[in-house]
Design a protein that fits this description.
The chain is mostly helical. 36% of the residues lie in helices and 8% in strands. The chain contains 20 helices and 14 strands. Strand 13 and strand 14 form a beta hairpin. The radius of gyration is 25 Å and the shape is globular. 48% of the residues are buried.
Length: 596
């Protein structure tokens, strides 16, 4: 919704796909739209318009919004989510806002959809038609994705209690257009998302792949009579990493889960059924329940599977990953989050709240009398994911397997509150970090990292949540597996309850409410530090003000720190605000209830 966006189109510098560049960006590539120049020799310009949509995908980078929840704190006093969680969240100070970013992306995508039929991508007319079809599909899919993120961050109830979304823009806005547009209803925005995903799905292949001579029959019939060479030219493996039909199905599942959730649903149970079936469609395209059970080696450790990561090429995905960005050689995450003795800044400190959410190895919550939990020896016989995701006192880290001492009377800078970069909670982050990164200035090394946009585990957990609400813990609807089946597979993959048939899960499967709590907790654990907790609490209409806790360890005694950092949220803050600047400019926009 920026008037100047049509005047100058800034071509993306880097393609967000595999290791091969599809275009060579010019040093400076700003110019007016000129359909007469859309020739194969210069098709990189209109393609650059599309890439601006990719550049604005909100999941291109880590948010670590966990530090605004009960899962973590940050020692970075300038962290936007820290400020948000401690009472500084306003309609004009909003680090979660996607308004400008996503609407800018939608403007570029609308330009692309308006111009794509004028572009001669290649001289072969059949291949040119296929290119046009693919790029239309990408644009529709990306527009739906950006709309989903706008709803996630800005949908909410107006002053009359109506659930509102955002303005729906389906064509480029020009300088002469009316920008004073009202917000569409939440349901109308969802309909538009589904419509755009339908348009994407019908135009795109499930995945990009090359066919060989003799495989003509495997070319999808929807593309008509085309040769192997023509198909591979437009839909071949070279384009892996761009939007696909599989991604469209996954975005549909994500959006449907949001729409079915308590904060956005008016009690329509069919929305849970839709969300479950859409998630099942994604899982079924990857083997159904096997999408979880067969990913034992990858599902938990996708970020540290060194051989798997080293072999990534051409946008190909590991088994756990449905969609990812390109990999890069760096040490940024480790520099930010390794403990001080490993030359890191210790930024993200997991909370005692999160640590307590990990069950015992036998599957029981630590609060259950059957768990065998020992407060004097709290990290023994726990869920293996605890020490995989959280660096606890005495555990080792880094290239030299250095023991990390987080005790209150520790002598190193890793100790509790020792220096500015020390832990505030008694814990450091371990998840997402490669322990083979060396930060020592005399011998520093980088390692390969990538950022998932969507993991199959996320979709599996979405199915479990929706299926439990739609049909109960063991109901399947028209599918071949239940919420219980998914959670059992995820816990077995983690090593939970293997010696006692997961007795706690077996007791939970007879009650929807108990299973709901368990599913939400599994989602909390499996997806921690990946950008979900902040939004999950809000869509569940759950408590937001639970303070982040920590632990002080001294002489072998573990003492709870009941408040490391308060969480200051008003009840209306389960919905994010419309930017105050937009409200001032455009009176037709209605602010969400409670925000000024």
């Amino acid at each position: 919704m920026n008037k100047g966006i049509l005047k100058l189109l800034v071509c993306a510098a880097v393609l967000l796909t595999g290791c091969q560049d599809l275009i060579e960006p010019a040093i400076e590539n700003n110019r007016q739209l000129d359909p007469s120049a859309y020739l194969p020799s210069d098709s990189r310009f209109p393609f650059g318009i599309l890439l601006n949509g990719y550049n604005r995908i909100p999941t291109n980078s880590w948010s670590f919004n966990d530090v605004a929840t009960d899962d973590a704190v940050s020692n970075d006093q300038d962290n936007g989510y820290l400020k948000l969680a401690t009472g500084q969240w306003t309609a004009n100070i909003n680090p979660t806002s996607q308004w400008t970013n996503c609407f800018a992306g939608i403007q570029y995508l609308n330009i692309m959809l308006g111009e794509v039929n004028k572009v001669q991508w290649v001289t072969d007319p059949v291949a040119n038609r296929l290119f046009t079809t693919r790029i239309k599909g990408e644009a529709y899919g990306l527009r739906a994705l950006l709309m989903y993120h706008l709803l996630l961050t800005h949908a909410g109830k107006g002053v009359g209690g109506t659930m509102l979304g955002v303005p729906i823009l389906l064509k480029p806005q020009t300088t002469s257009d009316n920008y004073n547009l009202p917000r569409a209803s939440f349901d109308d925005c969802m309909k538009q998302i589904y419509q755009d995903l339908d348009s994407a799905d019908v135009k795109l292949p499930l995945d990009y792949q090359n066919f060989s001579l003799g495989q003509e029959s495997q070319i999808p019939a929807k593309y008509g009579q085309v040769t192997i060479e023509q198909y591979n030219r437009a839909f071949g493996v070279t384009f892996s990493g761009l939007f696909t039909g599989r991604i469209a199905k996954a975005v549909r599942a994500q959006a449907a889960l949001l729409a079915a959730s308590p904060s956005f649903n008016n009690g329509n149970t069919s929305k849970w059924t839709d969300a479950a079936n859409y998630a099942a469609n994604v899982l079924n395209s990857n083997g159904g329940l096997n999408a979880v059970t067969s990913n034992v080696a990858s599902g938990l450790t996708w970020y540290t599977n060194t051989t798997e990561i080293a072999n990534l090429k051409d946008g190909a995905n590991p088994p756990e990953i449905l969609w990812r960005n390109n990999w890069g050689e760096n040490r940024d995450l480790e520099q930010a989050n390794f403990p001080p003795t490993l030359f890191g800044n210790g930024r993200i400190n997991p909370s005692q709240n999160l640590v307590d959410a990990f069950p015992m190895l036998n599957g029981y919550p630590i609060s259950d009398a059957n768990s065998g939990y020992n407060p004097a020896d709290p990290y023994t016989n726990r869920d293996p994911r605890l020490k995989m995701f959280v660096l606890v006192n005495g555990a080792t880290a880094g290239v030299n397997n250095t023991a990390i001492n987080t005790t209150a009377n520790g002598t190193t800078n890793d100790a509790l509150n020792k220096v500015a970069t020390s832990t505030r909670t008694g814990y450091y982050l371990r998840k997402l970090l490669r322990q083979d990164v060396n930060l020592n200035p005399t011998s520093a090394t980088n390692q390969r990292h990538y950022k998932p946009h969507i993991r199959y585990t996320e979709i599996a957990l979405a199915y479990a949540e929706a299926a439990n609400e739609a049909w109960g813990p063991t109901g399947t609807g028209t599918n071949a597996y239940s919420a219980y089946d998914i959670i059992r597979a995820i816990r077995r993959r983690a090593g939970i309850g293997t010696t006692n048939n997961d007795a706690y899960l077996e007791s939970a499967k007879g009650n929807k409410e108990t299973m709901r709590t368990l599913i939400r907790n599994e989602r909390r654990l499996e997806l921690c530090f990946e950008g979900f907790r902040f939004w999950d609490l809000r869509r569940w209409n759950a408590g937001l003000t639970e303070p982040a806790k920590g632990v002080s360890i001294q002489n072998g005694v573990y003492t709870l720190i009941p408040v490391v950092q308060d969480r200051v949220f008003k009840s209306y803050m389960k919905y994010g605000p419309i930017p105050y600047s937009e409200i001032l400019k455009f009176p037709a926009l209605e602010q969400n209830e409670g925000w000024n």
